[in-house]
Design brief:
Shape: globular
Order of helices and strands: HHHHHHHHHH
Radius of gyration: 20 Å
Number of helices: 10
Largest sheet: none
Oligomer: single chain
Strand content: under 5%
Structural class: mainly alpha
InterPro entries: Noc4
Length: 235
C-alpha cells in the first residue's frame, strides 16, 4: 500500500502549478477533456502542496457547479448520457471525500482548511438539485466528530460563518442526533461484551467530547436567515 501511495506522489510531482491550471481550463472548456477529472482529483490530497490543492479545488468546484447532474430522468441503463452522469456523480463523491480528508488532516494549514471548509459548504449547497445536500453535510459533520485531531479551529469557523443560518443549524442538529444514537447503541453493545476493545472505547469518548464542543459553539440567539434560501428543511 505504501509503495502505491509513493508512486502516486511521484506522478503528482511531475506536474507544475501551470500544468494544473491548464488541465483545469481544458476540463472546463470541453467534455472531450473529461479524462482530466480523475487526474485532477489525485491532487486533492493532504500530501499535495497547498498551492496545488488550491488550484485544483478552484477548477473542480467550477466544473461541478456547471456539470454536476441532478438525478437523470433517463431510465435505460445503457444510455451513454446516463452512464456519464452516473460516473460524474461518483467523481463528485470522490471529491467530497478528498476534501474531508484534507480538512481533518493534522498537516493541513489553517488557511487551506478554511478554503476547503468553504468549498464543502458550496458543495452542500450544490449537490442535491438545488436543495441542501444533507448526505454530504452529514459526512462532513461525522468526520469532524470522529476526528482524532483538535477541531476547535473548524468549530470556530462554523460558528462565525455558518451557524447563524437556520438550515445549517437544523441539519447540524439532525447529524448530531444520528451520531449520538449510533454511539449510544455502540456503548450498549460494548457493555455486553466483556472483552470490548479499549481503543474503541477511547475513540468513542473522544467523539463524545467533540459532540459537546459542537453544542458549545452553537449560538444561543439566531435569526431565521437561510444560507441556502430553502422554504423548509428536508432531511
Amino acid at each position: 500500500m505504501a509503495s502505491v501511495l509513493s508512486k502516486k506522489q511521484k506522478k503528482r510531482e511531475k506536474y507544475t502549478l501551470s500544468d494544473l491550471k491548464t488541465l483545469g481550463n481544458q476540463l472546463l472548456s470541453s467534455r472531450a477533456h473529461v479524462n482530466n477529472l480523475p487526474l485532477l482529483l489525485t491532487f486533492v490530497s493532504p500530501s499535495s502542496p497547498p498551492q496545488h490543492v488550491l488550484e485544483t479545488i478552484l477548477s473542480l468546484q467550477s466544473f461541478f457547479t456547471i456539470d454536476l447532474p441532478s438525478k437523470p430522468s433517463i431510465h435505460s441503463k445503457t444510455d451513454p448520457e446516463l452512464i456519464y452522469r452516473t460516473w460524474l456523480r461518483s467523481k463528485f463523491d470522490d471529491f467530497v471525500k478528498s476534501l474531508i480528508d484534507i480538512l481533518t488532516s493534522s498537516t493541513c494549514e489553517e488557511t487551506l482548511r478554511e478554503v476547503v471548509l468553504d468549498t464543502i459548504m458550496e458543495l452542500v449547497k450544490l449537490g442535491n438539485s438545488g436543495r441542501f445536500n444533507s448526505a454530504v453535510y452529514h459526512r462532513f459533520i461525522h468526520s469532524i466528530v470522529g476526528s482524532t485531531m483538535s477541531v476547535t479551529f473548524l468549530l470556530d469557523l462554523l460558528e462565525s460563518k455558518y451557524f447563524k443560518y437556520i438550515d445549517v443549524r437544523y441539519f447540524t442538529y439532525i447529524s448530531l442526533e444520528k451520531i449520538t444514537k449510533t454511539l449510544e447503541a455502540k456503548d450498549i453493545s460494548d457493555n455486553r461484551t466483556a472483552s470490548a476493545d479499549e481503543d474503541s472505547k477511547s475513540h468513542s469518548k473522544a467523539r463524545l467530547v467533540s459532540l459537546f464542543n459542537f453544542h458549545f459553539h452553537f449560538p444561543t440567539q439566531c435569526g431565521l436567515i437561510s444560507l441556502f434560501s430553502f422554504s423548509s428543511p428536508q432531511a
